[in-house]
């Protein structure tokens, strides 16, 4: 089937002219995405922040060089070791006219920090102790211990500022469907599994966006996404299959945009409290049974980098940890030593969400079979799977991708998936918890880097999860669209332009 689709696409590339691929309206862009949006409440996201990036603003922004710059806050300064003061931008309003002020900042953060809310995004701001309004344009944020990342934490979800009166009036469920922010675009229509339409905010504090309308369309099938691009139905797509990159790139009609290591780091999570995964020898055996280099070369066509750490090379605290050697013979010996000479059967879930992830899952299942582990592979729908994982209802072995596009700091890459008790963690290692907590209480950069190095070393030794590879981000676009991609994986429509 894959070969048939590839041949079909090659024919389409030769027969469909992109002369008609320019947007129908001079300032409309349609973006094709692999997954449908389930909700747009930035404090309770269970998916990438791609859409909410364009609806809401944060106190701190990141420019194209990944430097922190003023957003809704004009400045931020430390008052003492555990308190930061933010001076807010005056004259900003939400898209419904509600004023932005310090009370909105407090409301935004408090609703996520409320234990009763069970926000899946709380990990990113769990260091916050209190948020205090000093005056309408001044807010102070106190942390439980010194937190050098506090300004960085204010640059991404769940720190997108929401309107208190509107959220209170309509409730959380309605807000997720009809969000209102201070950002460059306002949602005018949300049809689940079909599209989200946004229009430019004419009163945006950075100026009216150049693109009047942006429509986000879920197109789960990758070949269909590319066909839609070539037919002029969409102008930008995410998640281009690596095996189809050459055909698109050589068509003379469309552009590939590649951001090396611009994706997430893919791993297999392990429910390490359950047998037989509670034995480190079993976990090591599983890791040694996976041919990571072969998967990246043969399946991902080189559009990823094998790594031994969840921390990316752009992140503060990165240590170049060597990936485990592929050694099926040694893996079988470890299983026998652990009391499983004939292997065992176990469920494994791999969603069709990342680059060729279903095919990667099939390859891993075959490689595990070679050491006697029968992995019962399931390929769940993403909409179901993304609810299962934070609820702890996923299989004992499960694929997920994580990263630090949130902060470009090792904290975001590690804490949420390695610290016991976090919604996306199935790890329970007290020594790892101690180091992770220490990393959040350490201020000096050199000392923080040292703690992160210890965390990555312990992670490599105890194998609480199986790090696989860091993906490149691969997009395709109409030549009418000016878009270069970003290391933090954002698609800021405010920065997109159309060729004249």
3D structure, described in words:
It is a single chain. The protein has 500 residues and is an alpha+beta fold. It has 3 domains: 2-34 and 184-259 and 473-498, Periplasmic binding protein-like II (D-Maltodextrin-Binding Protein, domain 2); 60-169, Dipeptide-binding Protein, domain 1, CATH 3.90.76.10; 265-471, Dipeptide-binding Protein, Domain 3 (Dipeptide-binding Protein, domain 3, Roll), CATH 3.10.105.10. Helix content is 28%, strand content 22%. It has helices spanning 2-15, 102-113, 150-153, 164-170, 172-177, 222-230, 245-249, 280-288, 292-299, 328-337, 357-369, 382-388, 410-418, 430-439, 445-462; strands at residues 28-33, 60-62, 68-70, 73-80, 83-88, 128-135, 138-143, 185-191, 195-200, 213-218, 236-237, 255-259, 265-270, 304-306, 344-349, 373-378, 397-402, 465-471, 473-477, 481-482, 497-498. The chain has a 7-stranded mixed sheet. A 6-stranded mixed sheet has the order 14-18-13-17-15-16, sandwiched between helices. Strand 4 and strand 5 form a beta hairpin. Helix 13 (410-418) runs antiparallel to helix 14 (430-439). Residues 1-8 and 10-26 have low confidence and may be disordered.
């Amino acid at each position: 089937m894959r070969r048939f689709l590839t041949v079909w696409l090659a024919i389409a590339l030769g027969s469909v002219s992109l002369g008609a691929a320019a947007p129908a309206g001079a300032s409309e862009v349609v973006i094709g995405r692999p997954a449908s949006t389930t909700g747009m409440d930035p404090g309770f996201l269970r998916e990438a922040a791609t859409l909410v990036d364009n609806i809401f603003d944060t106190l701190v922004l990141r420019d194209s060089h990944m430097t922190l710059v003023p957003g809704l806050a004009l400045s931020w300064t430390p008052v003492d070791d555990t308190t930061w003061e933010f001076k807010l931008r005056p004259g900003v309003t939400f898209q419904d006219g509600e004023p932005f002020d310090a009370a909105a900042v407090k409301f935004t953060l408090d609703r996520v920090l409320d234990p009763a809310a069970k926000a899946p995004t709380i990990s990113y701001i769990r260091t916050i102790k209190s948020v205090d309004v000093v005056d309408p344009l001044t807010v102070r944020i106190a942390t439980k211990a010194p937190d050098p990342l506090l300004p960085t934490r204010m640059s991404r979800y769940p720190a997108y500022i929401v309107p208190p009166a509107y959220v209170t009036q309509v409730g959380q469920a309605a807000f997720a469907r009809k969000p209102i922010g201070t950002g460059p675009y306002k949602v005018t229509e949300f049809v689940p599994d079909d599209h989200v339409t946004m229009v430019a905010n004419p009163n945006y504090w950075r100026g009216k966006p150049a693109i009047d309308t942006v429509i986000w369309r879920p197109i789960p099938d990758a070949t269909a996404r590319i066909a839609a691009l070539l037919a002029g139905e969409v102008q930008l797509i995410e998640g281009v299959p690596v095996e189809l990159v050459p055909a698109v790139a050589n068509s003379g009609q469309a552009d590939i945009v590649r951001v090396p290591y611009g994706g997430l780091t893919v791993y297999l999570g392990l429910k390490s409290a359950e047998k037989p995964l509670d034995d480190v020898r079993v976990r090591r055996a599983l890791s040694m049974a996976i041919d990571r280099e072969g998967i990246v070369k043969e399946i991902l066509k080189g559009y990823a980098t094998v790594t031994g750490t969840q921390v990316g090379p752009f992140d503060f605290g990165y240590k170049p940890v060597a990936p485990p050697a592929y050694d099926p013979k040694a893996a079988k010996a470890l299983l026998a030593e652990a009391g499983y000479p004939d292997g065992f059967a176990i469920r494994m879930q791999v969603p069709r969400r990342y680059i060729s992830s279903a095919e990667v899952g099939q390859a891993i299942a075959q490689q595990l079979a070679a050491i006697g582990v029968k992995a019962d592979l399931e390929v769940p729908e993403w909409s179901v799977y993304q609810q299962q994982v934070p609820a702890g209802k996923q299989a004992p072995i499960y694929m997920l991708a994580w990263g630090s596009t949130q902060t470009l700091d090792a904290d975001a890459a590690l804490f949420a998936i390695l610290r016991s008790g976090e919604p996306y963690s199935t790890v329970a290692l007290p020594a790892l918890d101690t180091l992770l907590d220490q990393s959040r209480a350490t201020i000096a950069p050199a000392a923080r880097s040292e703690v992160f190095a210890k965390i990555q070393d312990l992670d490599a030794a105890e194998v609480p999860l199986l790090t696989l590879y860091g993906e490149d981000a691969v997009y395709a676009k109409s030549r009418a669209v000016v878009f270069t991609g970003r290391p933090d994986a954002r698609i800021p429509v405010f920065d997109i332009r159309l060729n004249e």
